[in-house]
Amino acid sequence: MAKLLRVNMSRLEARFEDVxxxxxxxxxxxxxxxxxxxxxxxxxxxxxxxxxxxxAPGLLTGTTxxxxxxxxxxxxxxxxxxxxxxxxxxxxxxxxxxxGVKAIIVEGDRPDKNWYTLVVDEAGARLEATPEYAGLGCYxxxxxxxxxxxxxxxxxxxxxxxxxxxxxxGVSTNDxxxxxxxxxxxxxxxxxxxxxxxxxxxxxxxxxxxxxVANKEAFKDAQQRLAKALHxxxxxxxxxxxxxxxxxVNVINEAxxxxxxxxxxxRFEHAARTGGEAMAEAVKQRGGKGKMGHACHPGCVxxxxxIIPDEKGEVLCAPVEYESTWALGANCGIGNLxxxxxxxxxxxxxxxxxxxxxxxxxxxxxxxxxxxxxGPRAIDLLxxxxxxxxxxGRILGAGSAVAGxxxxxxxxxxxxxxxxxxxxxxAIKGIGVTYATSSMGADHTAxxxxxANVLKVGxxxxxxxxxxxxxxxxxxxIATAYVDSTGLCLFTxxxxxxxxxxxxxxxxxxxxxxxxTWTVDDAVAYGKxxxxxxxxxxxxAGFTAAHDRLPEFMYEEKLAPHNEVFDVPxxxxxxxxxx
Amino acid sequence: MAKLLRVNMSRLEARFEDVxxxxxxxxxxxxxxxxxxxxxxxxxxxxxxxxxxxxAPGLLTGTTxxxxxxxxxxxxxxxxxxxxxxxxxxxxxxxxxxxGVKAIIVEGDRPDKNWYTLVVDEAGARLEATPEYAGLGCYxxxxxxxxxxxxxxxxxxxxxxxxxxxxxxGVSTNDxxxxxxxxxxxxxxxxxxxxxxxxxxxxxxxxxxxxxVANKEAFKDAQQRLAKALHxxxxxxxxxxxxxxxxxVNVINEAxxxxxxxxxxxRFEHAARTGGEAMAEAVKQRGGKGKMGHACHPGCVxxxxxIIPDEKGEVLCAPVEYESTWALGANCGIGNLxxxxxxxxxxxxxxxxxxxxxxxxxxxxxxxxxxxxxGPRAIDLLxxxxxxxxxxGRILGAGSAVAGxxxxxxxxxxxxxxxxxxxxxxAIKGIGVTYATSSMGADHTAxxxxxANVLKVGxxxxxxxxxxxxxxxxxxxIATAYVDSTGLCLFTxxxxxxxxxxxxxxxxxxxxxxxxTWTVDDAVAYGKxxxxxxxxxxxxAGFTAAHDRLPEFMYEEKLAPHNEVFDVPxxxxxxxxxx
Lengths: 579, 579
Description:
The structure is a homodimer. By secondary structure, chain A is an alpha+beta fold.
């Protein structure tokens, strides 16, 4: 029987609890959001003892379901003040599920100034005082943790940024090479770990695919149907495996929606140097440890990830994803892939969300603190200022909205305090609706309207017209809330949107595993319930429709080359969040 | 006939307009809040062209009414995001009223990077490009402005902090010695001036008491009754003239409510060195230009202000008020009056709100950026970091809530982003209700419950009990909204609360001046209408009951010496803002 693992940092106690019946069919985001709503006062201070950080593998995680190894991390965000769910892959989630841990709930606050490591293995769970890890970057920390706890251990950890409670500190998870580059990056959940004194979680299971399934036959059938769909769909079957997520750089640049130099243009003149094709070329030219088609967790059939090599063929950064190459590239006017990869590596090491780091750098560049395009200065800022916690490093670590406030910058591309990802909402209006209305703040994964606006997946809605965007975003937000709860990678969604049997297959797997009799309609209802929970939390925390808006400048300042402003009416936006 | 002066910075145009009938009986805060509600979109960016900054003398300003020379400054606050009214004395308001200017509305944004000065005199109004004033501190700026526009001119200006759009930048007005130490400090209205490129407003009128009054006889009678009441009341007649506002230091310290070292105790061991008695002693010992009983504007009968001399008898700072000596003193653990006065002078020069500066320094001290009690380092921070706009100076200039976010500090004594003034709400619970519920963020002047909680003015409500505090605060907020609209100094309120004829006299003056037939009930209704306007603006800007709360730590952490937490129930707080 799966258990909840409750870790009380005030008492330095880790205890297993039975899973309440109401949580039995919740997983991933549905579970983290429900636990946060049940246990965290919406108006509490995100860095105080009343906030909690919850880790939950998805409903299907730890089975042989393809690409199902995601881990949701939830709590109240120090960045946005909203409820937050951010998820990542890596080798930890499957091990956690196979140890029978349905969720880890970390609460309270350490009684001293020590840094602690939580170890979860077949013998149980225990907190260990590990003051020797204080200040370590994630690369060195991961190395030492494998040395101490054995190779193959799943690691969830924070870097110095999380220790310093920086609001954009992410939560790292490792891949099979023990690279810390898998990040539940958004919303500062690393700062919540830091505030509680939890430096790392080590998870060690000998099994990774053996979570009990009620009807193995039916499960296998559905699993194969999903795998087939993922293979057949051109995005998950071809584009992502060969060029990775960064294949989008040229596509979105072509669409005139690649935010450039702090969202002042939709085209970046050096885009091609920073995209998936350029990465594939670098891997080919430099060889060594470089790799395209890298899997972030065992059993992934998409394998969209990569290892970017340096000139000697050593690992420079693994991976460099679309969002990161954009945030640290086009958005900062940086067109040098090696600089971008180094910035990405530094984010992974000090423990920062790459998206928010790039957006904040863009705001600092707008303020004149450093010049657009100055890669070496940006590298120094991360490696020295953030690591040492200088005032400027702290400002960067506090995110784009705070940096804008500190420097009096009005052009801050953020919603609810969270910086926007790699799609300008004036040129892809559906994603603008998602940015505005998501409970998470500006988030692309919450309702990836780029699919229908640009990629023509799940239909087509003209990206430049306001009509139809609210409905598109709303439907995607519902579907996503379901997918984020299954443990399936969001990149399965391309197939789910276009191939009816694929969505059915996910429901069939859940039925086979849990003995339920869900239909696709139940999956939709499930997604809506997750969203209702999140919206209710935010309302109680003080968020209103006034916060479901894009920044003022995007309603006024036309974006080249389409010369569009964001013009989805407020009334449309207000309809999105009624689930 | 009085006019509105509309200054459009985008067109660099200053034009007089007729006063709409609906504004005829509005003045001071009632007028700034009404204009802001009518003309500023509640969700606009405070530093963008849609925000406005409005300057309005009170209904009685420019007459012979005693202590009636206040100027309200209103707009949307860059610090809080709420509507904001902050007021100051000095020699400008009476001149403005006598020039027939009912309000100055500054809107838009400069078309270039120039700094502008608005000149208002008997010849009209004009904008002058004055790039030579860029970067000047207020002392030197004021000196140059008198040199250029003549001695005796009223000056409203900003220092470098306002130019840099720091969210805690205040608006300076000068006294009769051209000292810039009169501040409409709170809420960053100096940053709004800075965002618009308006460095200064120069006001020159040959008359200061000649605003037309319909019934001079009746006016004179009422004016004399008010003057008598102010003279008779022990606070306005004795304490304030002799010891100034800083007489409160020992009183509030004795009450165990003087926030010390970032609100970690209610008693400061060096309080006596920093209070009114110590100031009077310094004035006596050092002589020279030092003075107690200084009037901030002509016709003030209270004269609560002071000029603190340095060891040579030269002006060190004029004035050092209670709030400033607390913020820069006890709250920072600084017990050296000369350090405090120097910090105050630097705030006046670079253009910062002293309260928010002290509260932010307290948060930075809590974070370990500098040590509690380190006056010289704090002086350096203001004189070098803020003036030069270093990253640390910028953090300080962004206020306590942002500094707390940047440094991951949970103990931030702020509401709606504005730092708390000099009364710990755990030991004076009525003022806690005002902090929590005022539309302005944590503000003591909005409903000065200290009067009944500690000073036994306007009755007595036990400061340590939660009962009765909400009603007390609500009634005071209503009365204050009326007083802030008349142009009368809030220090008239002690007499207004205790001497029934004093409040009647203010109504009689308005009737005599405007030909109205108001009763005291009308004054109450007037105050309520101001508050309704402000609450409605905030609601539309996204504020809810969740924002009408004190910081979490004040509900949990007991304050010495009374060992009390803040325990006024949320339900009580929620009743306050229904007007």
